[in-house]
Specification:
The chain has 19 helices and 40 strands. Strands 28-31-32-36-35-34-33 form a seven-stranded mixed β-sheet, sandwiched between helices. Strands 5-4-3-6-11 form a five-stranded antiparallel β-sheet. A hairpin with a 2-residue loop joins strand 9 and strand 10 (120-122). Helix 5 packs across helix 6 (256-268) and helix 6 (256-268) packs antiparallel against helix 9. The model has no long low-confidence stretch (mean pLDDT 91).
Length: 798
């Protein structure tokens, strides 16, 4: 939100500098994100002065140039070569002296240098209005009034003042501060001073020749509707003061009537809308909801299909405007408009928000209406706008103010206890100061006793409805910086349920990051078409688009979009991980499931001068999965091949009926849907089951073994159907105590082996923690292992 310093000072009388106000605003909860100096005229006329043409002669070497002697208040006259046909002696003119940077309406700014033009010295430039941003004419130089003081700075002569622009990061709950008046109210409370509302005492009805009847059918969506008619206006460009005010805050001037409505919007926070009264059929306005599917063309010339829930401003025949959001193409003010109907209303915030979202329309009006405007300010804003329109566009107020307000908006009743405020803030603020802050914010004290206050909070403070809200108001005006940090902090001991979810997640994330993985955060919203089980899909009631109309049931599809984004930008070597949730609707309940996704693709390692780039494989992913399981201390799980439509092939680690992780290759169908061709491998951890498994883990501390370990290798010939897990299981059943580890370090399948056979080379690590193993013990263990492998797995020693 943009706030003008000079505009703010018209409402709030203060001698604080912009920099001082910037700090105050941030301290009271209206964070100033930027403060910049702005000029309504580019360059601010810096370096330009008023000069007097003492003499003018024809240039000796050019028919269309003149040589002038100009007095700019200095000790000597300046010789300036001028090409304007209207330059003459005795004129008061605007002069750009040497060193001045001129900012023309068109083209880049340029600096005035002392130069020679066709052999004659020129020490400046006599300016036309378009050359310095004061107008559009280039027919000749500007000729000023005879009383213009020689040597006076041009910016003082033309009353060009610098302004400062506050860019405030307004939080959604602070709708009351979405205007210059709202900001002034907060500053007045902090500075313990007053602010001025616009004076509308001059408002009166000139005649009643343009009465337009108003009927509100949808009273819930439009609790208050105020209006007035103005006839005989002349729609034209706004005066400079009005255009300058709007330009500073980034609003483009349109015409005097529309500019006034925008001015009042940003001054008071009340959106207004001006209709061409001659386009209102039947001289009647009806506030209602239209039939589903009604076609309506908005100001941007787009035809929209209305919902039966959209609140519309209609005449006796047709809809004219989407209430609180956007006007219609045929009812707005144009250069031919002479009579206007001015609307100032209070619309239901939820209704406006839904309509704005439904049609994808975000306007200054909808921004304020959907956050909550002040129902008590509609008539004041209407009168303020009507007086300004008379001032800048002429005309007469041709109807009494119509104000349909059947049920008055009551202030919020809130009871507060002084002690509760002090306890929550953590400082003994004097009670009289607490009350003074509360009343300075416009909150009325209905009842007071020694313990606290019964308050009536104005309706425009939509976020102040509870005692804690009042406490927050007191704290921000009192000043967060005025609350000292105590030397002692009291805290109670808390029991943390094991395992600590955050610690486990951080531990895993740190390990993955250290191993070259990059964390990604993907959108939880996706297309319903990506849902594997549409019956379990969690659909969005008001989706932003058809591509974001459901919650994701898997982390894979959004992650593949991230892969495609990187691959399309020549970053095809991918190592991603994401902690996220999937969303499901099961048995009438909404279910969230925490997951961890690993994703691997492209090269295992980048190409270097001393090594070639090799592609990542399933086994690189398995290595990462095994590293996580080992780091978390998860053992004793079973392994099986996947028969899952989400994977082309892969494995799963499980305990009983709970799958801890599934990992493997992405299917061609999923790759095609994401526009990918390269091999991609991913792992899907069910993080809930992982955390449940960790609950059963017991940490046992042991000394480092004193005695050495021993390695033995075996080469086995086995059937193709036999897996390493089966062999490993046989080994540990044979010897649980002394065999510490079993690994496969070579696999061979080829023509030299019998059909249906394969060769596994296994390594065995043996260790006794109490003594050194002898060759006799080792040989005995290995013979038992060989015998059991031969008997159980039909293995032959090669």
């Amino acid at each position: 939100m943009k706030i003008s310093y000079s505009w703010l000072k018209q409402i709030l009388k203060t001698d604080k500098t912009p920099q001082e106000l910037s700090l105050i605003l941030t301290n009271i909860g209206l964070e100033v994100e930027s403060l910049e100096k702005v000029q309504t005229i580019p360059g601010g006329l810096e370096g330009l002065v008023i000069g007097f043409v003492e003499e003018r002669t024809q240039h000796p070497n050019a028919d269309r140039l003149s040589v002038t002697k100009v007095n700019v208040g200095g000790p000597e006259l300046l010789q300036i070569v001028c090409g304007a046909p209207n330059v003459a002696a005795g004129q008061k003119v605007v002069v750009a002296t040497v060193g001045t940077t001129v900012h023309p309406n068109e083209g880049e700014p340029f600096k005035i240098n002392k130069s020679k033009i066709r052999g004659e010295v020129s020490e400046g430039m006599i300016c036309a209005e378009d050359e310095i941003g004061l107008g559009n004419s280039h027919a000749g130089i500007m000729v000023l009034a005879e009383d213009a003081p020689i040597g006076l700075e041009a910016k003082k002569y033309f009353n060009v003042d610098d302004d400062y622009l506050f860019e405030i990061g307004l939080t959604p709950n602070r709708a009351d501060a979405a205007s210059h008046l709202g900001v002034a109210r907060d500053l007045a409370a902090y500075l313990r001073t007053s602010y001025d509302l616009p004076d509308v005492s001059a408002f009166k009805t000139d005649n009643e020749q343009l009465n337009i009847t108003v009927e509100v059918e949808a009273k819930d969506a439009c609790p208050r509707y105020s209006s007035v008619s103005i006839s005989g206006v002349t729609v034209k460009s706004s005066p400079e003061w009005l255009k300058d005010k709007l330009k500073v805050i980034g609003v483009r001037p349109i015409n005097n009537v529309v500019d006034v409505t925008n001015y009042v919007l940003h001054e008071l926070g009340q959106p207004l809308h001006a209709f061409d009264a001659d386009q209102i059929a039947g001289k009647k306005i009806i506030v209602k909801k239209c039939a589903e599917g009604t076609a309506f063309v908005t100001l941007d010339e787009v035809e929209r299909k209305l919902s039966s829930e959209d609140l519309m401003i209609c005449d006796a025949e047709k809809p004219l405007c989407i209430a609180g959001v956007f006007g219609g193409i045929g009812s707005g003010v144009t250069d031919q408009t002479t009579n206007i109907f001015l609307e100032s209303a209070y619309f239901n915030a939820v209704s406006v928000r839904k309509t704005s979202k439904r049609h994808g329309l975000k306007t200054d009006a909808s921004f304020r209406f959907e956050r909550g405007t002040d129902p008590e300010i509609t008539v004041l804003a209407l009168q303020r706008a009507a007086l300004l329109i008379k001032e800048v566009a002429g005309g007469e107020i041709s109807s009494a103010v119509s104000d349909i307000y059947p049920v008055k908006a009551n202030p919020f009743s809130v009871s507060v206890k002084y002690q509760n405020i002090v306890d929550l803030i953590g400082k003994n603020i004097p009670l009289i100061e607490i009350k003074e802050i509360i009343t300075s914010l416009g909150i009325e004290v209905a009842k007071e006793d020694a313990a606290g206050l019964d308050l009536l909070v104005p309706a425009y403070k939509v976020d102040v409805t509870r005692e804690c809200d009042i406490t927050e108001e007191v704290l921000r005006i009192y000043g967060y910086d005025n609350i000292e940090i105590p030397s002692k902090v009291n805290a109670s001991l808390a029991y943390t349920v094991k395992p600590n979810k955050e610690n486990i997640q951080n531990l895993t994330a740190d390990m993955l990051t250290a191993n070259g993985f990059t964390e990604i955060w993907c959108n939880s919203l996706t297309s319903l078409a990506n849902s594997k089980n549409e019956a379990e899909a969690v659909q969005i009631l008001n989706p932003l688009s058809s591509d974001l109309n459901a919650m994701r049931q898997s982390l894979l599809q959004p992650a593949l979009e991230s892969v495609a984004y990187n691959v399309n930008r020549k970053n095809s070597d991918i190592k991603f991980y994401e902690f996220g949730k999937t969303y499901h609707f099961i048995d009438g309940k909404y279910v969230e499931r925490p997951r961890l996704l690993l994703l691997l693709s492209g090269a295992k390692q980048s190409e270097q001068w001393n090594q070639q780039s090799t592609p990542a494989t399933f086994y690189n992913l398995k290595s990462a999965v095994d590293a996580i399981m080992k780091r978390l201390g998860l053992a004793g799980f079973q392994t099986d091949e996947l028969s899952n439509e989400s994977f082309a092939y892969g494995l799963k680690y499980f305990r009983g009926d709970k799958t801890l992780v599934s990992f493997g290759a992405v299917t061609n169908a999923n790759k095609k849907a994401a526009g990918l061709k390269q091999d991609i491998f991913y792992a899907d951890f069910d993080w809930t089951f992982v955390l449940d498994a960790l609950k059963k883990n017991k940490i046992i501390n042991k000394e480092v073994p004193k005695y050495p370990s021993v390695r033995r290798d075996l080469s086995l010939l086995i059937d193709q159907a036999v897996t390493f897990e089966q062999l490993k299981s046989v080994v540990f059943k044979t010897e649980k105590k002394l065999v510490k580890n079993v690994q496969v370090f070579d696999v061979y399948q080829g023509d030299k082996l019998p059909e249906g056979k394969k060769s596994y080379a296994l390594s065995f690590t043996l260790q006794d923690e109490e003594q050194t193993l002898t060759d006799k013990q080792i040989d005995a263990i290995m013979q038992k292992i060989i015998a059991n492998l031969a008997q159980t797995a039909k293995a032959e020693i090669r």
